[in-house]
Amino acid sequence: MQGAKDSFFVALRERLAEVNPERTVVIDGQVRPGILVCENETEGVSGFVSDVFCIEFQDVQQVAYIAQAPMRMTCTITYRTKGVGASSALGRGRALAKMDTELGALLAAGVTRKLDHSAVPIADLGTMVFWGQPTFEAMTFDGEEVKRTARVSVYFHAEAGA
């Protein structure tokens, strides 16, 4: 399952660098594309960073109860913004809409190779990771920020021995 998570995240991270190279985040002095996996970040970092996509993986289950059936996990992507510029409160809806569009572009490919990113060199695991279209929840307000959550189903075959 870790190969599927890592491959999905890396595919989105690389796509974000193409779609909007200016959407970045600085964590521990390093500039990175503005997309994080919440479980991999230090406590409090991912949940409170504006203008960044925060990914959480949940609800892993086998699609069918037959040998070699694919697995499905729900990927929740949450993002928030205060807007940009001097009148940021007035522009936060536009900033959120821009992030909606970017997320759609990140997810448009719908497929990537499943790789073992913990191996040196990175190893091809011989299968693919697929995902569907996102379901966007309603915008909510969190203080000065607007926030949205999108959910997408991610499909993969379990690694041997997993």
Give a structural overview.
- By secondary structure, the chain is of the alpha+beta class.
- The protein has one domain: STM4215-like, CATH 3.30.2000.
- The protein has two helices and ten strands, in the order αβββββαβββββ.
- It has helices spanning 2-19, 88-107; strands at 24-27, 30-33, 35-37, 53-62, 71-81, 111-116, 123-131, 135-136, 140-142, 145-156.
- The strands form two sheets. Strands 3, 4, 5, 6, 7, 8, 9 and 10 form an eight-stranded mixed beta sheet that branches. A two-stranded antiparallel ribbon has the order 1-2.
- Strand 4 (53-62) and strand 5 (71-81) form a beta hairpin.
- Helix 1 (2-19) crosses helix 2.
- The protein is globular and about 55 Å long.
Name of the level-1 CATH class: Alpha Beta
Q: Determine the strand fraction and express it as a percent band.
A: 35-45%
**What is the helix tally?**
2
Quickly give the structural class.
alpha+beta
In the CATH hierarchy, the architecture is 2-Layer Sandwich
Task: Specify the overall morphology.
Answer: globular
The separation of the N and C termini measures 7 Å
Helix percentage? 10-25%
Largest sheet: 8 strands, mixed
Number of domains: 1
Number of strands: 10
Could you list the spans in which at least 5 consecutive residues all have pLDDT below 50? none
Mean pLDDT: 88
Q: If you compute it from the alpha carbons, what radius of gyration comes out, rounded to the nearest whole angstrom?
A: 17 Å
Give, in order, the helices and strands: HEEEEEHEEEEE
CATH topology name: STM4215-like
Secondary-structure blueprint:
Layout: H1 2-19, E1 24-27, E2 30-33, E3 35-37, E4 53-62, E5 71-81, H2 88-107, E6 111-116, E7 123-131, E8 135-136, E9 140-142, E10 145-156
Parallel strand pairs: 3-4
Antiparallel strand pairs: 1-2, 4-5, 5-10, 6-7, 7-10, 8-10, 9-10
Helix pairs in contact: 1-2
